[in-house]
Specification:
Pfam families: ABC_tran. GO terms for molecular function: ATP binding. This is Phosphate ABC transporter ATP-binding protein PstB. This protein is an alpha/beta fold. It has a domain of 197 residues: Rossmann fold (3-Layer(aba) Sandwich). Helix content is 32%, strand content 25%. The protein is built from eleven helices and ten strands. A six-stranded mixed beta sheet has the order 6-7-8-3-9-10, with helices on both faces. Helix 8 links the parallel strand 7 and strand 8. Helix 4 packs parallel to helix 7. The chain is globular and about 60 Å long.
């Protein structure tokens, strides 16, 4: 049951962040349509009955307390949950109008078109160059790799920092550089969507700021869905925000539920549900 509208303006964010909140474009032609989606691990229903649409070339943030199913929901968008034994997705997720879980859909092709960046930077133990070139090579690209590596590293705002050490091991880079390298590796195969699961949680504030700037640059060409615990980050970078929380059903079983999904500017200033306001103002979570 929805609760009465919250107050006129939520005090949970600094004034400097509130001032920079921008109104998102309308969802005219969503790239994802999520209809009554639930996710099961065996018999356990981790996420229940999610409905939402995700806009093209927008940044959508998923926020909420630990255990509410944010990462579980995120992994549905490129079928990463398929890799976890016993996992089942109910309902329907459409990607460009096609059922993402249809019998004739190749999960490997799904993951090529919908890339993933994880919480902890995970570069391959190879050279910087080979980290970027790996995906294109797997997809049969052999010519023009030098140009592709440079172009991709420029897109990831990393070229100037690594152009003279492309043959060095990627593990020699700083944490923030490694995460930008992983983003570059994801976009090297030209996906349409980039999923990011807490991409800044292991980074310092300077590296985090660079990743946030990069996300906003990439959103000109890619759709981005990000899971974050940092509400100020969601407010700074996203066009729309989904707030999930964990609730108990009649049997006392905990499950994740989407409470509110709205333009970020509206959700963070005039949330329509008092559970959202309680979370973004720090009263729980």
């Amino acid at each position: 049951m929805n609760n009465p509208p919250a107050g006129p303006a939520s005090p949970g964010l600094p004034a400097s962040v509130k001032q920079n909140l921008q109104e998102a474009p309308d969802l005219v032609d969503p790239i994802f349509q999520v209809e009554d989606v639930s996710v099961f691990y065996g018999d356990y229903e981790a996420v229940r009955g999610v409905d939402m649409k995700i806009g093209q070339k927008q940044i959508t943030a998923l926020i909420g307390p630990s255990g509410c199913g944010k990462s579980t929901l995120l992994r549905c968008f490129n079928r990463m949950n398929d890799l976890i034994p016993g996992t089942r997705v109910g309902g329907k997720i459409s990607f460009r109008g096609e059922d993402l879980y249809g019998d004739d859909v190749d999960p490997i092709e799904v993951r090529r078109r919908i890339g993933m960046v994880f919480q902890k930077p995970n570069p391959f133990p190879k050279s910087i160059y080979d980290n970027i070139a790996y995906g294109p090579r797997v997809n049969g690209i052999r010519r023009g790799l030098d140009d592709l590596v440079e172009q991709t590293l420029r897109q990831a705002a990393l070229w100037d920092e690594v152009k003279d050490k492309l043959k060095q091991n990627a593990l020699s880079l700083s944490g923030g550089q490694q995460q930008r390298l992983c983003i570059a590796r994801a976009i090297a195969i030209r996906p349409e969507v980039i999923l990011m699961d807490e991409p800044c949680s292991a980074l310092d504030p300077i590296a985090t700021a660079k990743i946030e700037d990069l996300m906003q640059d990439l959103a000109r060409n890619y759709t981005i869905v990000i899971v974050t615990h940092n509400m100020q980050q969601a407010a700074r970078v996203s066009d729309r925000t989904a707030f999930l929380t964990a609730e108990l059903d009649s049997a006392g079983v905990r499950y994740g539920k989407l409470i509110e999904y709205e333009q970020t500017s509206k959700l963070f200033t005039t949330p329509s549900d008092d559970r959202t306001e309680a979370y973004i103002t720090g009263r729980f979570g």
